[in-house]
Description:
The complex is a heterodimer of chains A (491) and B (144). Chain A is of the alpha+beta class and 491 residues long. Chain A has helices at residues 14-28, 34-39, 46-71, 74-87, 93-104, 108-121, 126-136, 166-183, 185-194, 200-206, 211-230, 234-241, 247-258, 263-278, 288-302, 304-309, 319-337, 346-357, 360-363, 385-403, 443-446, 454-463; strands spanning 4-7, 10-13, 342-343, 369-373, 380-381, 411-420, 426-434, 467-472, 479-486.
Amino acid sequence: MLLAACTFAGCGSSETVLEWDRAQEMWNQRDDLAYQAWMELDEDSDEGKEARRRIAAADPHYKAGIDLIKDGDFESAIDKLWEGAEIAPIDPAYYVDIARVYSQRGFTNIAADYYMKAISSLPESDAAKVAREEYEALGIGSNPGLRSVFSPKSEISRYNSSEGGLGDSLGLFLAFAAGLLVAAGAFLAGWMRRSPGVSLSRLIDEAPEFHSAIAYLIGSVRHELLKHRMGAISDVIKTLRTGEGSASQLKFLRDRLYGGVPIWEAWSAQKNAFARALGSRLNLSKDAAFKTADQAFDRIADLQEEIAGGGPEVAARLVSAHERLREFDRHLAEQQTRLVRTRVDRELLEHVVEEVGGEYAVSSVRLDELAVVPVEAEIHIEVPREDLVLILKNLLRNAIMVVARDEGMRRVMFSVSLGLEPTGQEVVNIGLKDSGEAVLDVRDLSGSGKGTGLKLVSTAVRRYGGVMDVVGLKEPYRKEVIVRFFRVFEE
Amino acid sequence: MKTILVIEDGDEYEKFARLFLEDHAVIHAAHSMEEAHLLMKELKVDAFLIDLRFDRARDSQLVGGVEETATRVFSGDIGLAVKYLKDNQGTLILKEIREAGHHQRAVFVHEFAPRVLDNLRRLYGEVVAISSFDAEAIRLALEL
């Protein structure tokens, strides 16, 4: 019997509620199969109705976004598409439309990417069939393409991959798929679902927007599992191997490996956390280091009985697994050093000012002051530079357009400050002060207040582990919009 | 013999300390700031061994001020603040320890970025970080 459960949409079966939760999470993770998951919800259930209502509500935003791409107004298109993405997944059929527009504009790599998304989102649909055909007609060059903010977890610069470009892999895929379609259509669907995803190492290369999450996940594995559990038995193994170990040391070792949540189950939970956070773009079975760690944890699991019944000498059997996991820890430490970092300095801020100043609407605004006040310290944050520039351009543009409405002095100030937290960490505040009279509340950044366009910027900031804030100020400025990130340091 | 106060949300540090340090020191353990305050009143503690992450602590047990942290750092987001406080709880416990007038050496088993460790030393005086559970290194850090 299913239990009743209630959500904002009303009361439904707990199974449907769970499916709805999963479907929403899939979209949060930009899983290619999210739309399908939403549409597969029972249409008579409250959750199914809500999913369809939201998909319908998102539709005009997506359509408007695609029209703007056609007009060549990519920046406005991104805003529109983001508005849709905030509401519900995109109908994968639109990926074909987007691909065509990019193809017509000469961005064949981006077009290919969207064709691929159409194929992997609804592999057996008519749209996927069309996508396959049109993809074949494309000539894939080496154009690195544009980065689109829409669908950021799937529209990554695969073009830079060191493991083969999209063109190669998709070409092979199409050849393979064509054969399979004839011979085994059912197998094709399964293959296509399993095939997506890359190793963690490659994902770090390709998806800077995941770096904040990856930093946290790697930190957790290293701290909780590799240091606190495996690391803590290093001395015990060393002692037991010399034959000088005691029964209490062996008990400690058993507790650390097999007590409470056995270590391989903790490992499995950690891998699930990676999968939840990084979605279908990650495929840990393609990651050699994770596979080696799997084998080491399997070995530890296999030895449970022997170690439970044996004397101190059996600890020697753990040595190779322990060594492999130490190596895995070193590998993860190395991955941490590859996470993207951007220096926040005067040059960056001036670049933003220059770019925004060159825009038509902004250039017509007369400003009495536009000051740039960076700190002199060498500051890095974990945000790709081009995305940080986009975020700051939006903030600056917004501030200028706000002061433009006023008759009095029009002042805007860009500044960077550091704050020391009691944890020893430092926060980087990139602030934009303006003298505009328009009142702005922190709720306006989350979508619960009046619409300002900043909600979209706030969403982008959060993707990189940052937050946006608003502080009221006294004259000559009225308020400051702040984007805040934790400072990262070269280790 | 020296007295070490272990502060953690579970019992892993305590078990490790009893196994590897008990020949050199008397080990006491606290599992919350409240317990630590009580033990600090009773004992003459020579050094602290403090866990950094308190994932298992209840939100109500966290020190560092959830709402205040949410407002100051996370634009009012309580969920982010709780996660942050749990991930860094050991340093905030150290802050309370210092504010209570206890300035003995504090040891963490964690790989802090050098700058963060410098900050902790500026804020809280004698702080030592050991990157792994190496019994000999921890003994030396605790001056046993």
